[in-house]
Structure formats: structure tokens, C-alpha cells
């Protein structure tokens, strides 16, 4: 409401007049299913084959000459073909695919706020679906030409009806002569004395309108036709209303322009269309609180923010932003139900938004899909997940590297199973290189698969969905929304957001990850000045915030904190972070000395487990990993650097769980390997880490060993000045050469030859090179 000074007054007027208002619904309220009007026209343009024709129509669309563009499409396609194109574009199938999203949209609230007459210029059946699903099915759905019925609905009320001013597409059928789409059709239906014009005048003279999702274009050459009728049929005493977006610099002009046409507006920030839903929710809450409370979704409700979870993809404290195209591609991945099995992968660097994208995809999936995330316990027997299916099923697997071989064998089995209901598997993992050959986990995925080609063919597309950096405007929106969510009294000004954006481009120049945008904004709204920070300063700030929260909880519960208890708590937390969550039972075994300290401090509690839960370190018998991953990795890294004497003991303990440990340190090396060569202490940790990676290779099969060797190679690249690490890498290559066939072993030998050239003064590397040659001669 604070966006424009007049918003509160207009809101109160709408609330007082609510029972008398008639909603006039435009395409903006259905764009979640059908896109914007320009997008619809461009989709229809896609049916043209000639490049010159496509360019001509596209120029008209880009110039906002939408009626002329539609007219040209009719000329180029012929009316019969265009009619079929339009019917397909606005089919019920598109709405059904977005059914889960419908309940979150503003249009879903209209049945409760406006239970009688509704006007719309839309062809589709979204309003019919919203009213039907809410138990307010329209008694009448009619086109212009039924003046007596309209008059009854306008004056008598008591029943509900939908007047579809521009025609209708019902059940995939279209009466082309009655729709209003092309310029010629507009000229004909909006001609003097036509039923559409008469009935619009009747409506405008007798009831006040609330325009929702309407462009209300006022420019002389682009003016909406119904706006012209509104101007000519204004009755003294009637004021119409709208809820509309507007650029900050255009507020005064937009208010004046609408006011001249007797329309009062609640204006909100440009492209922040969720504001319409929020405003309608507030109207419902204040006029019918029981119905409001019964809603399945409350978009505008104030969220109770768990600050320790504020960066989690599940927190939903900011709207999903900037990945709508990727969501569309994932929707395509679900595909037609006659395809029994498909899989695909979402790939991107840590902090790019992979998990949020997958989560949003899950939340928006159609209600006829059963969606679930794979948990650690599921990997014990994945085949159970698809037993006795009763719905189409989407399974999402995050942190794939840890279970890549198991997932590959399972998907190969899924592909071979006859089934009547489709199954889709979406994998979510980091990319550690520029192409799929560099994704070490993909080699493991196919490692135990008998028919690799068939499993590759079952992949939705040859290339995975690789997340690209977000646009500047999306990053600015994310920062503004986050500030409002965590500090409701703070609104970032344009200049402040630009400063933070430039800092983001400095500390994360290639990726500009949204997670770093949140970190910077969090620092700014909490009184810090991140303008002069580097990347490590940002990470240190977030790490210290998380540690201070845990310290505060310990002091509140125990009345104080000592160094031994603090060290024990961190040891448990960071072990759990490496293992991607850990049960308290496992932590007792892996961290015996720390557990002894916990037990001594818990003598006044029911149990050590109870104390850990009260201080917020454990929940449900588990200590969760410190998330997001970028923070968890950095925290473990810096803690080891601060306590080098503990590094060997810690790494030995977590390596008792080799699969999650290797996956964690592979990600850590990828994200923060540059720190390991920063000073002598870091290099010592890198050497210990290299030794542990080397030990793992001797216990692994070829595919797993290759992935671990690649991590060790990356570690070597980060520490070209540390011969000891290069020596460990050379050992790993020898172990690898013994596991590979002759052709692949040659690649390993060439890597070792390169190491001997880089480190000519390290005898151990030369020895390992000789050993690899010996292995080769034995093959």
C-alpha cells in the first residue's frame, strides 16, 4: 500500500463498494496458464513458415499493435487455420497442466469476493474452472446478444453469470465468427449499435467495475476499445477501479490518465503481479474472515520466518523469480502420459537456484502427479518407490553424486518395467565443468548399467537443463523482496539495490548467484556495509551469524557456555554437515570425545539428545547439515583452518562414511579450492585431504575411483606450488591405471607424464610414472 499515497484510500473505497462491484477480467489474470497477450500472438506466429512473414508479424507485436498483428496472422493463415490455432493455444489442457498453480492465483479468489456477475474479454475457461472448483459454478455463461439476461443479472442479482465479451473456447471448440481477435473483428463487434457495445454501455452505466488483469491502454493509437465505450457512457456518481502495476517514475502520469477516465487505481511496483493476489486476500480477510481462513493457500499472509532457515529453498520468504522459462521446460519434461519413463537433470553451480527450481516445479505440478523427494532411507531399496502406483509419479533426487551408481541401475530397471502410469525422475546436482563429460557423477550413473544407450535414450534431452546467470532485473527483485521479508520496515531504494548488485558482480563475477545476492542483502539490512567486502568477508559474516545464533541458544538454555562445550557442538554440527545430516546414534560413534563432553553437560536434562534438541542443534534424532551448502562447506573449511591439529582426526572420522564424505569434499574443492593454497595451514589441510582421497581410490571400482581422482586432480590444480599434493595425485593415477583397460590407461599415463614435466624435482612422481608404464605393458 505504501507504493502510492492514494492506495489506502482507494482500497477502502473498494472494500466499502465490494458488494456492488462487477469484476472485469483481462488476460493478465490467466497468464500463469496462457501467457501474456504478446506471448500468445508470438506463439501463433510460430505457425508461420516464411521468415519474412514471421518478421513482419513480430514487428507489429513488438510495436504493441496487437490487433494489426492478429489481422496479419489471419491473412497469412486463413480464418479456418487461425481458428484451430487459437483453439489449441487456449485449450483446457494448458489450464489442467497448471491446476496446482490456479489455487495460488488472484483469479481463484473471485468466487468468494464476487459471487454474482463477472465480465471477461478472455476466451479460455479459467474463470469457469475457478468458480466451479470453489462451489460457485456459473448458472449462466453467455456471449453478447442476451440483453434480458444481462439486465436481470445487473439489477436483480441472486444468481451468477459470466459474460464472455470477446467469445469463448469451450471443450476445444471455437465459434470463430463470434470471437473478437483481429482488427476486422474488433471493428465489426465494436461497431455502432452492435450487441457488444450496447451491453457494455449497459454495464458501465449501471454498475461500477473493478478491472483486473486489464492493460487499460490509453494511448490514442493503442487504446482498448472498451475504454472508449467507458469514456462515452460515464454516468455521474460512478467511479470504476483497478489494481495495476506501474513504474515508480510514472505514478503521477498513470494516476492522472486513469482518473480522466473515471478509474481510481491501487498501483503496485511494475511486474510485481503477486500484489493483486495479496490485495484480494486482504479484502477477503476483512470482509469474510471465515472463508479467508479456510483458503488452502494464503499468499499474502505474514510468514513466520525461522531465521536459521531463511536461505533454504523451502523457506519461500521471497517469490520464485527469474526461472519461468526453466519451469516451462520442466513442464515439457513431464510430457505426455503415454511415455512410460523419462529422466532428466537440473545442473548448476552451488547457490544458483537448482533446489529452489526443483521445489517450485514440485509445488506447481498438476494435482494428478504424485511428487516426492528421495530421502536417504529410499536408497536402500529404490524399487519400492514405484510399487503399487495409483497416480502419475515424479521422483526428485538431490545430491546425485553420492548415490549415482545406485540411481543409474534403478533408472535402467525402471525403463524396462511395463507400466500403465508414467514415471519421471529428475536429478539435481552441481556441474563441475563445461560439459557432460566433465560431470564425474554421470560416468558413475552409467557405471553398472548393461544397456547404456537405452538409458541415454530415455533422457528427455541430450543436454541437461543447465542454469544460466539471472538477469539484473531478477537479481534486483530478489534483493528487494528479501529485504522486505526479513526486515518489513526496510525497503531498499533503487540506488541501494544497484550498489549491492555491483558488489555481487565483483565478488561473483561469472555466476552472479542469487544466494550471494541474499547474503549481501542480509548484511546490508542488518546494519553492515558490504560495499567494501570481498567474497570471504561475505561468507565470514554469514558463518558468524549462524554461529552466534547457536551460541545464543546455548546460553539461553544452559545459562552460559564454555570452550569445551562449544567445540563439541561445532564438531557434531560440522560432522553432520559433511555427511549431509547425521543421526545422533551415528554421531555418538563417530565423535566419541565430543559426545562425552555433551553427556557431562546434559546431567540436568532428561538425556543428551534432549539437551541438543533444546539448544536447537538436533531435531527428530538428527543433527542437520549447516545449509545452504556454500555456507556449510565454508564453515567446515575455515574451522579446519582454525584447528589444524584436529584436521586428521576429523577427516578420519567422517571418512567412515565414504560416499557422502567424497561428495562433500568434491563440492568443497570445486567451490573453495582457491583457499587451500592461501597459506601454510590451508596447504597442510589440503595435504591431509589429498591423502584421504587417495585412500578412497584404492577401495573403489573404476567409475567411483575416476570421480575421486578428478577431485584430487582439481585439488592439485588449485595447489600447483605444493608438491606433496601432486605426489598424492600421481599415486591416484597409478591406482586408476591398474583398474582401467589399455586404451583408458593410456590417458592416465599421459596425465602422469604431464605431472613429471610440471614437477621434475619430485622423485615420487617420476616413480609413479614408471609404475604406470609398467602397468600398461602388463595389459
Describe the structure.
The chain has 779 residues and is α/β, with parallel strands linked by helices. The termini are far apart.
Task: Describe how the helices and strands are arranged.
Blueprint lengths: L6 H10 L5 E4 L5 H4 L2 H9 L5 H12 L3 H12 L1 H11 L2 H6 L1 H4 L7 H4 L3 E4 L5 H8 L6 E3 L4 H9 L5 E4 L4 E2 L2 E2 L8 H7 L5 H12 L2 E4 L12 H8 L7 E7 L4 H10 L2 E7 L4 H14 L1 H6 L29 H11 L6 E7 L6 H11 L4 E5 L18 E7 L5 H13 L6 E7 L10 H6 L6 H6 L7 E2 L5 H15 L7 H14 L6 H12 L9 H24 L4 H16 L3 E2 H7 L1 H10 L6 H7 L7 E2 L5 H14 L4 H8 L3 H19 L3 H18 L4 H17 L4 H17 L2 H17 L4 H15 L2
Helix pairs in contact: 3-4, 3-5, 4-5, 5-6, 11-13, 13-14, 23-24, 23-25, 24-25, 25-26, 26-31, 27-29, 31-33, 32-34, 33-34, 33-35, 34-35, 34-36, 35-36, 36-37, 36-38, 37-38
- Report how far the terminal alpha carbons are from each other: 76 Å
- Radius of gyration, in Å, reads 31 Å
- The computed structural class is alpha/beta
Number of helices in the DSSP assignment: 38
Order of strands in the sheet with most strands: 3-4-2-1-7-8-9
Largest β-sheet summary: 7 strands, parallel
The low-pLDDT segments are 433-438
